[in-house]
Backbone:
């Protein structure tokens, strides 16, 4: 295991301002740390709220039995929703479980397996493609553009997802990863890897993608995963999983509500993750500014310990409206290793 010897770090030099200035700098940086912690707590609360409303909105009842099937949700009172705040997306309409027709994925559409390509086939500009690994690491509920392309001369050997298809992985490190879905809503066909299936159907693609993220669907999906060295989806069993099939306008209403939550908790450009990223960058900037000093010339007093000569001046601290005013402070190093 890598380690650092204390003798190696003993010569390192750090600024040594007066204690009252140290306290003030610590207070400023603690404020940033507290704000980031509050934002992270808010993000976690919003994610739980999002999951609750997603499962509630998609927890339709079977009209024939009058109840929610096993593994398909339950009482909305089980998990009380978080009190609304200005950041909470508005919920339009009733979220109570309503009746809807249920059908198996095999009844709703068909699965088309992709064809193999490797990262060695990637080029800067070529045939747009989705690699199964990117579904775990890059894509969310839906995608309208890709991050990878393969050689144009491969086009005849590939298989494609069409706009509106849902692209599903068939392998994963965990059972939950297997069968992860992304709705392809781009303008053109996209090549898919042979560890992916394109699910072709006539429903709202994002509605299906959201259904496949619910806790109840994941529980059902786990029954059709071969737990070998690599967890693999058993597509014949997977196609037997049922999902609700409400009218198209209801699908679109639910998608519109869940999209607002998805942006809030997952969008790295405008949601809470973007706010947390900005605060971390702000913290790092002010931390480095507050802890960067010009070194004063040292003198050696009679008792032999380095000291500073001249007047100690306070460093510039974070001003709510003004520019950062960097002053000077002495630096001290090697104290821990001195005899």
Residues:
């Amino acid at each position: 295991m890598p380690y650092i010897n204390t003798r190696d770090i003993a010569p390192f030099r750090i600024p040594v301002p007066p204690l009252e200035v140290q306290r003030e700098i610590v207070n400023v940086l603690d404020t940033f740390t507290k704000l980031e912690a509050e934002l992270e707590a808010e993000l976690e609360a919003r994610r739980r709220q999002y999951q609750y409303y997603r499962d509630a909105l998609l927890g339709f009842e079977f009209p024939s039995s009058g109840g929610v099937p096993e593994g398909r949700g339950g009482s909305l009172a089980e998990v009380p929703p978080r009190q609304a705040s200005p950041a909470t997306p508005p919920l339009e309409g009733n979220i109570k479980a309503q009746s809807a027709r249920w059908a198996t994925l095999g009844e709703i559409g068909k699965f088309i397996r992709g064809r193999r390509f490797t990262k060695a086939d990637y080029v800067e500009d070529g045939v747009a493609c989705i690699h199964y690994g990117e579904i775990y690491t890059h894509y969310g509920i839906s995608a309208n553009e890709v991050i990878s392309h393969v050689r144009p001369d491969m086009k005849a050997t590939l298989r494609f997802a069409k706009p509106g298809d849902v692209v599903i992985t068939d392998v994963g490190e965990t059972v939950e990863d297997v069968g992860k879905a992304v709705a392809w809503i781009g303008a053109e066909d996209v090549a898919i890897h042979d560890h992916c299936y394109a699910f072709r159907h006539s429903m709202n693609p994002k509605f299906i993608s959201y259904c496949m993220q619910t806790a109840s669907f994941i529980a059902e999906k786990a029954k059709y995963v071969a737990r070998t060295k690599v967890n693999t989806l058993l597509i014949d069993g997977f196609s037997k999983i049922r999902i609700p099939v409400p009218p198209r306008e209801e699908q679109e209403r639910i998608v519109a509500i869940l999209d607002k939550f998805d942006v809030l908790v997952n969008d790295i450009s405008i949601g809470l993750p973007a706010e947390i990223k900005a605060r971390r960058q702000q913290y790092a900037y002010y931390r480095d500014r507050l802890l960067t000093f010009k070194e004063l010339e040292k003198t050696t007093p009679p008792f032999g310990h380095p000291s500073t000569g001249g007047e100690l001046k306070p460093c510039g601290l974070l001003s709510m409206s003004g520019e950062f005013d960097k002053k000077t402070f002495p630096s001290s190093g090697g104290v821990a290793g001195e005899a």
Observations:
- The longest helix spans residues 19-57.
- The radius of gyration is 28 Å.
- The chain is about 30% helix and 20% strand.
- The mean pLDDT is 79.
